[in-house]
Amino acid sequence: MRNLIAKLALEDGTVLEGESIGAPGRTVGEVVFNTSLSGYQEIFTDPSYNGQIVVMTNPLIGNYGINVDDEESSRPRVRGLVVRELSRIPSNFRSTADLGSYLAAHGIVGIAGIDTRAVTKRLRVSGSLKGTISSGEKGSLEIEDNRLVEQAREWSGLGGADMVKEVTCEAKHAWTKGFSTPFAECFRAGRPRERLGAGLRVVAFDYGIKHNILRILHETGFDVTVLPATATADEARALRPDGIFLSNGPGDPEGVPYAIETVRSLIGQYPIFGICLGHQLTALALGGRTYKLKFGHHGGNHPVQNLSTGKVEISVQNHCYAVDTSSLGPEIKPSFVNLNDRSNEGLYHTELPIFTIQFHPEAAPGPNDFTFLFDEFARMVREKTPVSWGEKSHLKR
Question: Which of 269, 319, 259, 276 is nearest to 294 (CA)?
Fold first, then answer.
């Protein structure tokens, strides 16, 4: 195997040289850092990362390899990867391939051998930066550093762009698969024996939906039909659903006005549960505003507080935008808050059966502290009444 070099260039003029990993070539995207200690395969295949070059703060990545069960979509969705050290020989009984070969097979460009702590610190101080990774044989990588920086600056960025159209499904389909991984035991432990969604039909809008969301909806008992992000409210109504699920997804929520309009048309007609991008789209459909975070939330160890109970739990997150709660009406209340920066992490409607979560309750990777929210969704759909986030809340566990 030929030794290839790579360069990471940031829009602020920083250029770092390291070793090429994955596929040779060039990629551009928004550079963000992820603080997860494990679960790299789930991160790389999460469609919410479309448009992003991910810097892993864990210094060793790839040590347990790749396996088919940990895919969260059909292929990796990250624009590029930055790591301190790539493990070449994985050690795990589930492993079927090494990470480097996996990235190369899917055309993902990456760089290793650079100081990821320094890059992370720069992102925390300056905020998320546009960046370019370029890799190839040393003789073919004589492009000037200034030109790489210019390419990063010339990229239009995530703001106002429709990043969803690249990751949504092409057509309506049913989802009928449950768990085939060790996650099943964790999910089922301590849960109600009855499948609370049994007999209920749910339409899930795919803005970049993760497989584990669909697995949990199925395990909860729902009859699940997935619709593309571009599907209209009439297409959803034609399926005669009992409830609507709005999935995670990448980029700026204002970049998908068609999705906002569809959600607006469904509000008041069906119980709605939205997560991540679905949370932001619901807020916009209700007349609120969103804003871009300085460096976003990316990782499996973010503390959030339940404002009703005061309980703090650890969440999985990946988003660059947040909801401005002051822009919403008095009938819409915050339910969770991020303890790192006090940004909003959840909303509920006091008059309509609607609640939304900014973080990822489906885990994969990360802690599964919040999978009970799918049971709360089932109760809301069955009763067709607003979620009680007060003293009678099922969330007071």
Answer: 319
Percent pLDDT > 70 in the chain is 92
Residue 27's pLDDT band, with cuts at 50, 70 and 90, is: very high
Cα 28 → chain centroid? 19
Whether 154 is catalytic: no
Architecture in CATH for domain 5-154 = 3-Layer(bba) Sandwich (3.50)
Indicate where the chain has its CATH 3.40.50.880 domain(s): 173-383
Tokens of 247: 């999935």
Q: Do residues 49 and 172 touch, judged by C-beta distance below 8 A? A: no
Segment 186-232, tens digit of pLDDT: 666 656 657 899 999 999 999 999 999 999 999 999 999 999 999 99
Residues spanned by CATH 3.50.30.20 within the chain?
A: 5-154
- CA-nearest of 344, 368, 343, 339 to 356 is 344
Q: Quick check: helix, strand or coil at residue 153? A: helix
Could you tell me which residues come within 8 angstroms of residue 182 by beta carbon, excluding any fewer than 6 positions away?
A: none
- Residue 298: phi, psi to the nearest 5? -145, 110
Q: Which one, of 213, 205, 228, 208, lies nearest residue 167 by Cα?
A: 208
Annotated catalytic residue 276:
yes
From the list 11, 30, 219, 362, the catalytic residue is 362
The strand pairing partners of 346, in sequence order, are 336, 357
The end-to-end CA distance of the chain, in Å, is 54
Structure tokens at 174: 């049913």
The values of phi and psi at residue 102, to 5°, are: -60, -45
Is residue 186 annotated as part of the catalytic site, yes or no?
Answer: no
Q: Which of 279, 298, 360, 376 is catalytic?
A: 360
For 182-196, give the secondary structure using H, E and C: CHHHHHHCCCCCCCC
Name the fold adopted by 173-383. Rossmann fold (3.40.50)
276, 298, 349, 376: which one is catalytic?
276
Query: Taking the model in full, what pTM does it have?
Result: 0.94
d(CA 356, CA 334): 9
CB 336 within 8 A of CB 361: no
Tokens of 311: 């309980």
